[in-house]
Amino acid sequence: MSEKPNILYIFTDQQSATAMSCAGNTDLKTPNLDRLAARGVRFPRAYSAFPLCTPARAAMFTGRYPHEVGIDENNVPIADDWIPKGLGHIVAAAGYDCVYGGKWHVPEIEIPDEKHGFRKICGFDDLNLAQSCVEFMAEKHEKPFFLVASFDNPHNICEWGRQQNLPWGTIGNEPPLGDMPNLPANFDVPPFEPRCIDEWYRNHPRLMVHREKYTREEWRRFRWGYNRIVEKVDGEIGKILDALDEQRLTDKTIVIFSSDHGDHQGAHRLPQKWTFYEESARVPFIMAGPGIVGPGRTDDTLVNASLDMYATVCDYAGAEGHANPDARSLRALAEDESAALGRDHVCSETNFKNIRVRGRMVRTDRHKYSAFEFGLYRECLADMTADPGEMVNLAIESRYDDVVQEHRDLLRAWCERSSDNFGHHYGHRDIPFQVPGQDSQFDA
How far apart are CA 123 and CA 109, in angstroms? Predict the structure, then answer.
């Protein structure tokens, strides 16, 4: 590629990896995301760095894990030292016109103009975001552009679940119950689930009502609503992709699509996000554009959707990034089917803030391991090949002790290289770092 490409990053809020028809979901239709995937590569094993809005978004635009930039919950600002190193600033320094439209939420709901290196072309407004992007692309461009289109939906499932009006318009009349989606195979609460998950939801009564009192019929209605909201935002994304074609920019533009985190959609009787369950933590990730090998290819490499997006954009822009060493550019994978990323696991973090329980996840090729700071069954191990619905906690079985220990060791190494104090006893400074299973491995 002799000239630097334009870069278009489209991302949604609260869209699970499976919430696309190109991912095999027959309960919804996403023709625009499907056509993007059909001409590029889809990464079905992409995980959020933190399945919550502000922390995940901070990771995207700093290339660092949320704990590194001082964020472990919503509505917290990026630490000041990291703002000049943000993606907008460094891509602009590489010669790009950096513009941003839509939801920001780090912590302001709309991005402050220029503060993060982006010029704002649209505020928090799913109704006008696509048109603002269309108008921007129709302008004469003296240099390559980096355009971010950040949609709020399908986050409106939160309002839908509370029987509130939907901010960006209705989704039509409900069909008869028989035409609504069935319940997922992992609908029930799994035995030996980490106790802190249930405790956290109990501290949020508006969410716990879903787990305790929603009928199966109500959950089917919930899933129908979520699918329609996904379809609604897919239509808006289509307007942007149409404009790329109309302005003859498709062959000059790298397009990346993803989401900040997913939504449980009733899996394990849960709404919303926060946990490491697949529906919450795994997100879509699609790349298409010049040099990207397709059509319609999938790549099963483990991806950190938040950090790897940052590294990938820097790679294409020729920008000097400041990503965590765990971040990887996906460009080589996208352009060469035989390429390898040199990674055998990805990590993620969460925080059940109001019950003071942090959690960390390690996803390897076959297993997913999660650990929480305290509580019954605070370790969980799932065989993602035999048990993709995460219904069986293998960490309670002694025959899996070696596998659990392998993942503990990966977690410890990740904490050390990312300066994460997960496992430190906050009340006794003389007790050094511990991860589960290593409680006796220190000198008193």
Answer: 8
Q: Tell me the β-bridge partners of 350.
A: 359
Q: Is the peptide bond before 154 cis (omega within 30 degrees of 0)?
A: yes
Q: Return d(Cα 240, Cα 121) in angstroms, integer.
A: 14
Assigned superfamily of 6-190+215-335? Alkaline Phosphatase, subunit A (3.40.720.10)
Contacts of range 72-80, beta carbons closer than 8 Å, 24 or more positions apart: 72/349, 72/351, 72/353, 72/358, 73/351, 73/353, 74/105, 74/107, 75/105, 75/107, 76/107, 77/106, 77/107, 78/106
Q: What's the distance, CA 225 to chain centroid? A: 21
Taking each helix axis from N to C end, the angle separating 305-317 and 53-62, rounded to the nearest 10 degrees, works out to 30
Sign of the Cα torsion 122, 123, 128, 129 reads positive
| pLDDT band at residue 120 under the 50/70/90 scheme | very high
Residue 133 is inside which H or E element, if any? helix 129-138
Q: What pLDDT, on a 0 to 100 scale, did the predictor assign at position 437?
A: 59
| Threshold 0.90, pTM exceeds | yes
| Alpha carbons 62 and 321: distance in angstroms, whole number | 9
Contact of 198 with 207, CB cutoff 8 Å: no
Q: Provide the pLDDT confidence category of residue 85 given band limits of 50, 70 and 90.
A: very high
CA 331 to chain centre: 19
Question: Environment class of residue 355 by beta-carbon count within 10 Å: exposed (0-12), middle (13-18) or buried (19+)?
Answer: middle
For residue 298 the two structure tokens come to 């999938």
Average pLDDT estimate for 154-171: 92
Output the CA torsion sign for 181, 183, 186, 188. Answer: positive
